[in-house]
Amino acid sequence: MAEATKRYAVVTGANKGIGLETVRQLASNGFTVVLTARDEKRGLEAVEKLKESGLSGQVVFHQLDVANPTTVASLAEYIKTQFGKLDILVNNAGITGSQVDGDALKAVADTGAVERGEVDWSKLTTETYELAEECLQINYYGAKRTAETLIPLLQLSDSPRIVNVSASLGKLKNIPSDWAKGVFTDADNLTEEGVGEVLTELLKAFKEGSLESKGWPSSLSAYIVSKAALNAYTRILAEKYPDIRINSVCPGFVKTDLNSNAGVLPVEEGGARVVRTALLPNDGPSGSFFVQYEVSDRFPITLYYNPKEGSFCYSHFSQKDDPINESAMAEAIKRYAVVTGANKGIGLETVRQLASKGFTVVLTARDEKRGLEAVEKLKESGLSGQVVFHQLDVANPASLAPLADFIKTQFGKLDILVNNAGIGGSTADPDAFRAVVESGAFGRGEVDWSKLNTETYELAEECLQINYYGAKRTAEALIPLLQSSDSPRIVNVSSFMGKLNNIPSGWAKGVFTDAENLTEERLDEVLTELLKDFKEGSLESKGFPSSLSAYIVSKAALNAYTRILAKKYPTFRINSVCPGFVKTDINYNIGVLPVEEGSAKVVKLALVPNDGPSGSFFVQYESLSHLHCLSLFLLIIFVLCIWCFCFSRYAVVTGANKGIGLETVRQLASNGFTVVLTARDEKRGLEAAEKLEESGLSGQVVFHQLDVANPATVASLAEFIKTQFGKLDILVNNAGIGGAIGDADAYIALVKSLEMGRREVDLSKLMTETYELTEECLQINYYGAKRTAEALIPLLQLSDSPRIVNVSSGAGKLNNIPSDWTKGVFTDAENLTEERVDELLTEFLKDFKEGSLESKGWPSSMPAYIVSKAALNAYTRILAKKYLNFRINSVCPGFVKTDINCNAGVLPVEEGGARIVKLALLPNDGPSGSFFVQYEVSDF
Questions:
Q1: What are the chain's domains?
Q2: Is the pLDDT of residue 765 over 50?
Q3: 586, 495 contact by CB (below 8 A)
Q4: Cβ count within 10 A of residue 714
Q5: Which UniProt keywords apply (predicted)?
Q6: pLDDT value at position 380?
Q7: In angstroms, rounded to a whole number, what is the distance separating the alpha carbons of residues 709 and 780?
């Protein structure tokens, strides 16, 4: 049986880059993968590397030169003998057909010239006839002969796949020749012979030196045409073998040797694109060209549908270079969501929020009239065209098939499924319930729940059918459509009542917590036992909850099913969430949260990044986990009483063992945050945390060692926060140094004499600055803040109000830097990038080392401090533009008495800390990307 389910894959050109990563991801998905490479030594080293990472037995090596038919035949014989079949072929082997000046390419990429279309590729590449011929032999004919040789083995698979790794440059708009375009786009008459004729003509023109006059690309001609030919061959093969899913894919501009590592995507992302295409369902597309279409800062990538080519494509070029049909482009990037039980409450609000973010949302409801009314209401609010209705009763399998068929026909895929439909499994007298609340009987413990709450076997059975089985059958019906998305998400709306401490039964808990043996069949067994005990009247004696038993167990089962699904579909992000105690019909509208807040939690999970969590249960009220409540209504009162203490929020402050950092920790902790106090010196950090605990902040402050100049400690901090808290709400980048050694007494004397106020002081006579101190200053003040932010942003993205505050200084204002070039870089908002800031800092260090600071327009005193703070202000603007849902600002806390100014400042730390905390607590519609001085927005 185990042998029958084994699956086999081959990846060509796989000893490095995208090929190697594709092997790793396929092996991680359970495939036995044949890693092939032209160079036997490098191929064996790559296999060894994968085995050491834990993939022993999943990867084997076989030498393959796709340009050599003998080695292709040898590979086929090996697979036939060893495995008897093949399931996936990834044709990844490829070369550029030119010699590239790597350094020059990187330099050009860093200037932004690629974005502006100002690159003369002929100056970066050297192309010869021999290189062009080799390029065609590998990129096109190599893929062709490998496919033809292995197809007989693929035909023995029940789900054969061929993925041809192509490129955006293979788009026909990059080939001027109308004749070549005509051959490639004539679908009715497209043949391998026709493609071969195009390639022969290209080589003939290359040899004659007539590329441009014959309409061929003037640069990278062989590479461009080989990839266009590969896309055409993909269509030919797909038509010839309708039982095989055959597609080509552009993995994106990935950092690989092919582009001298000037790409912008990691190989993990590129490999994921290839693997997603390799794992398409049996009814998935075939003969298509898939592209990675996310926008990159350095290379804006546009996705559009080219009617001539019959596929969605993307370009690194601007619209003025290649006009496109805007409506077709809008169609191409559309994304689709389904929300069940959505005619009111959290479901309706989830639909509204997703539609407001550009999704086309299918609002479903059991009652058609109420569902249509809900859609009308949303349309009237300005969401016309974004929301459509489809009737759905999740308890009725017959209504699921029409929904799936509707989505398949109308949209062709699905990106998000929100399983929201649910009921309480009991009935209650709302008026009596409210009267009890108003009488204060809850507080006195004088409530007879049996008089307020009615549970029957029929209601319990219906509860399980909707809350658990309804979500399960909806997911199963729509997963094939979700598999066609590049970022599939399932969010199961659960409840804190589904936590296992609400189920007394040790057996039921054991089933739900046994991760290794958790299966859908075991969940069915628990639910069957619950209904049996309900019918027999033996719930309490059998360890099931005595009140709201069906609701509690259904939500526990839903959380367990979430974990099962996440394990089964590792490329999905599947999570369950308790949206909080929201005012809805299910609790007679006595909840404490508005639906907007509850739905925001759901939508946040629906939009987690591709590397976000999966198989997790998110609870808004984290500190409720210790409550052993067997009644929803009793729990409601607990929530009402301790609401203010239950909403945990987390902050990190760097460089916080003293001064402004320590005071910022104190004020945030006093505002109810759990604060991670970080410091380079562990002893001083622990002492500072102890000091705060003794002042009455016990339990609010924890310490973690952090040297922002050391990437390893930054990674350790991120892991600590992820493990302990699961998210982060505020990051305060406070760590900083002066970058110089000064005469403290002389400095203090000057401050007291007010000479500094009249700018009559030459600080260079008081300060000693060295190259080492300067370099350290940049590493801590700028790069330290940058690496800390980058490491913690994934955790901040899980917050509903993420904040980053970069502690800067008035010294970082641009009027303190004489250089017009430097000012120009920092003030050019449109072209301001991290790469340009790096370029500036590199130039600064170079001039420092050469002793040419003043002649090059840098500050003569405290140059490292001034420039690092100016760079931090610039980075603040870059980040704010990149993360629009964050509030990211920099702040000058004022001339505060701290060690950095020898305690000669005029403001107490309380005032400086307050300015930082004010920015950390800005409302969600507050400013972002600004520089604050004395509570006011200042220019830079």
A1: 8-332 (3.40.50.720), 336-424+455-629 (3.40.50.720), 650-938 (3.40.50.720)
A2: yes
A3: no
A4: 22
A5: Membrane, NADP, Oxidoreductase, Transmembrane, Transmembrane helix
A6: 84
A7: 5
Q: Catalytic annotation on 875? A: no
Over residues 373-427, the pLDDT tens digits come to 999 999 888 887 889 999 999 999 999 999 999 999 999 999 999 999 999 888 8
Which residues, other chains included, contact 316 with Cβ-Cβ below 8 Å and sequence gap of 6+? 114, 168, 253, 299, 300, 301
Cβ neighbours for 884, distance < 8 A, ≥ 6 positions apart: 928
Residue type, 345: G
Average pLDDT, the chain: 83
Q: Residue 735 is encoded by which pair of tokens?
A: 């760590």
User: In the numeric block, which tokens belong to residue 317?
Assistant: 């070029």
**For residues 796 and 775, what is the distance between their CA atoms, to the nearest angstrom?**
29
* CB of 375 closer than 8 Å to CB of 389: yes
Please tell me the predicted confidence (pLDDT) of residue 268.
84
Q: Are 654 and 661 in contact (CB under 8 A)?
A: yes
At 297, the pLDDT band (50, 70, 90 cuts) reads very low
Q: Residue 711: enclosing H or E segment and its boundaries?
A: helix 711-724
- Give the lowest-confidence range in 629-633, 765-769, 772-776: 629-633
The torsion angles phi and psi of 797, rounded to 5 degrees, stand at -65, -15
Cα 744 to its chain centre, rounded Å, is 48
- For residue 766, name the pLDDT band (cuts at 50, 70, 90): low
Query: Which pair of structure tokens corresponds to residue 250?
Result: 């552009």
DSSP H/E element including 121:
none
Paired sense of beta strands 936-938 and 931-933, if any: antiparallel
Give residue 9's pLDDT.
Answer: 97
338 exposure class (CB count in 10 Å sphere: 0-12, 13-18, 19+): buried
Cβ-based neighbour number of residue 742 at 10 Å = 17
Band (907; pLDDT cuts 50, 70, 90)? confident
Nearest of 95, 75, 247, 231 to residue 153 by alpha carbon: 75
Report the length, in residues, of the chain: 940
Question: Contact 87/161 with Cβ under 8 angstroms?
Answer: yes
pLDDT at 602 over 80: yes
What's the rounded Cα separation, in Å, for the pair 623 and 128? 68
List the catalytic residue out of 141, 223, 468, 551: 551
* C-alpha–C-alpha distance, residues 577 and 600, integer Å: 11
Residue 125: pLDDT band (50, 70, 90) is confident
What is the rounded CA–CA span in Å between residue 703 and residue 687?
A: 9
Q: What CA–CA distances, in Å, run from 403 to 366, 406, 474, 527, 548?
A: 12, 5, 9, 27, 31
pLDDT, position 909: 84
Whether the CB-CB separation of 867 and 739 falls below 8 Å is answered with: no
Alpha-helix runs per DSSP H in 34-138? 40-50, 69-82, 102-111, 113-116, 129-136
- What mean pLDDT do residues 923-932 have? 90
φ, ψ (nearest 5 deg) of residue 895: -85, 80
For residues 777 and 738, the answer to whether their CB atoms sit within 8 Å is yes
> 545 in the Ramachandran plot: left (φ > 0), alpha (ψ -120 to 50) or beta?
beta
Secondary structure (3-state) at 542:
coil
Q: Flag whether pLDDT at 764 surpasses 80.
A: no
Q: How far is CA 336 from CA 410, 488, 570, 929, in A?
A: 10, 10, 20, 31
C-alpha neighbours within 13 Å on the C-beta side of residue 732: 35
User: Tokens 């993990």, residue?
Assistant: 268
* Nearest by Cα to 10 from 289, 282, 274, 388: 274
Q: Report how far apart the first and last C-alpha atoms of the chain are (Å, whole number).
A: 68
Tokens of 836: 């340009």
pLDDT value for 325: 31
**Helices in 828-890 by DSSP H: which ranges?**
834-850, 863-882
